[in-house]
Protein 1
Amino acid sequence: MSKLKEILEHKRIEVAARKQTISLLSIVESLEGVAPSRGFADAIRSHEQDELACIAEIKKASPSKGIIAKSFKPETIAGDYEKGGAKAISVLTDEKYFLGSPDHLRRVKDRSTLPVLRKDFILDDYQIYESRAMGADAILLIVAALRESELLRFMALARDLDLDCLVECHKKSEIDRAVQCGATIIGINNRDLDTFEVSLETSLMLKRFIPNSTIAVSESGIRNAHHVDLLRQVGFDAILVGEHLMMQENRVKALNELLRAPV
């Protein structure tokens, strides 16, 4: 069984259990009077022509690396990311495989003024309502995990709830599906979710298949300013960086170095 299939199987069980604990009706009722979203798409689109917007990710662990950050205070990390020049923050909320929590996202949202992406494995409408209730401004939708009908429905529901969608792809056929479904933000994940192998070449090869009118984000495996320059040259609008930043003692400095303007 691939890692993605394993994670999705567990996620279905997890979501079913949460539905028994907190009803969808309760979540919907909690959305009355909720503050407007902060505009994830606008934040990563509005940057200088010669720079890439950075979506800085907060995660404690991953299936491939295990524990990444032993000292883990999401609100402190969020503050560092904002000081370092991030345009948005991504928060892992998956508990079993990434040691994440919805509480991490809430703490980040309280501490930071930046828009926040909920990074999880979305496969049920319930999770989209839940995302809005916990304070997310955007959600991740993984094309490889969803049927076309689900992708369309989830994107429409997110739009109704004032959530942006980062639609993640790993191959041309997935980009084609995302474009056909009307995705306005497409992420290229350089990590193969079946094998967890990472190659920046994935983004460099696939960028040309993303329409110029669509916000293009490169995700995973971005570790230095040279990588950022390569992605800038092929036309990416933004990068999503997690492990590299989480492993740094001085995340403000690491972000500044990563995003330094090309000479």
Note: The chain has a mean pLDDT of 93.
Protein 2
Amino acid sequence: MGLNVIMMGPPGAGKGTQAGRFAIDRGLPKISTGDILREAIKEQNPTALAAKARMDRGELVDDAMIIKIVADRLARPDARDGFVLDGFPRTVAQARALDDLMSRLDFGPLIVVDVTVPEQELVQRLATRRICSVCGVNAEPTGDVCRKCGGRLVQRSDDDGNVVLERLRIYQQTTRPVLDYYRERPTFRVVNGAQTPERVAHELNAVINDAAAARR
């Protein structure tokens, strides 16, 4: 049975970093809708460009488009033995569509992890976050050059102060119900994201191992 993990949490909680780290440690593909969209934007895909405009305003992308993107990705062979989803689902409609997809593909239960961080700390983190203008990876807010590829570090357009507050408001309004949708499942877990990345990773591994045992 594959290890199918959903990493939840508000913007700035560090779920993307932790999802990537966990995926590498377990040999699983990390599936991020943001990464998929960025690839399509580089190719000047009209739908992806429209989605980028919405994200830049702090809004969420259309459910049908995101569901199709994720469905196509999960159908690839490398996801057959498990995956780590980052940034999906963000609405109850997406969560229900994912349940239907998991059933059709016979993938087994989902392990859902909510990474929690106080709002004040989230705002501070996002205000100082930088990404590489070339490869798009997140970077520490020190220096001007990406350690991975040497590209220039910039602030994400959706990390601007007013946009951050709008993103957090939308998260509370739209994505929080997704947590309620999953909360009563025996494979739902919560991790304290207001710790060092190493401590978060340790706790994350522990709760996922526990949830994996609970689904048997």
Note: The domain at 3-117+162-214 is CATH 3.40.50.300 (Rossmann fold).
Protein 3
Amino acid sequence: MVVGVLGVIIPMVPGLVLCWAAVAVWAVFGDVESAGRWVVLGVATMVAALGIVVKYAWPGRNLKRGGVPNLSLLAGGALGLVGFFVIPVVGLVIGFVLGVFLAERLRLGDFGKAWPSTKHALKAAGLAMLIELATALAIAAIWVTGLTAT
């Protein structure tokens, strides 16, 4: 569970999946047979699914409002992936920002016009991370509650 929560902050670690998997392993392989474990797993599954949907839908809507095209986001993602291997951990963020900025610079033809789109992309990435962290912490709280109740 702790690795899952930390995985939200560490790039390329599937934090929500690990948090949910911790609850699933606890429910399936627990010492005592209890229906409460399955209820906890069900609630954790619903929270995880909702968190994943919201993680992509809310920031995506904000990006569309900000006028950031999908091609710029794709360029940011590609350069972020390259940056992750060139500069471990922080390279993902640096590459993403640089990729969006360069794609917007090419599209708009001006450095000054490219920066607002880059800021929108940064805000969306931060919002997605906060949503994922809140979801991981909610799953952890559900699990701890289930631990104490069963």
Note: The longest helix spans residues 111-149.
Protein 4
Amino acid sequence: MDDLACSGKELQLYDCRHRGWGKHNCTYGRDASVECSSVRLANGNASAGRVEVCVNGIWGTVCDDSWDIHDADVVCRQLGFSNASSAPREAQYGEGADPIWMEETGCQGGEASLFNCTHSGWGIHNCVHSEDASVVCNI
């Protein structure tokens, strides 16, 4: 595929417009790649809950060290909401299960994804699940 043009509403990549199968002016040095990441809310409802992230296919939690409304805003926007009304701490929506993927999350508030925010490093933390971070999103 070459000159791929997706609107973002397609269910599958091959539903996007492109030059046609096998028609291209590419070399292997121009191969495309993508890195997928996922965020979900657990133990609450569609707009509020414990923040969980999927890294390498494994779901885990986010520690509330440095967790604030800027981090919560980013998560809520990533999930399709306008912003957050609060950023509950101390496992307000219950304790998750291992692993704890993120700690010292430092979003400025304008990031498109929680994965664009600074943090200690994947799985690097000194937290326990009683410190799991949560969000309450504005509907």
Note: The chain has two domains: 1-34, 38-137.
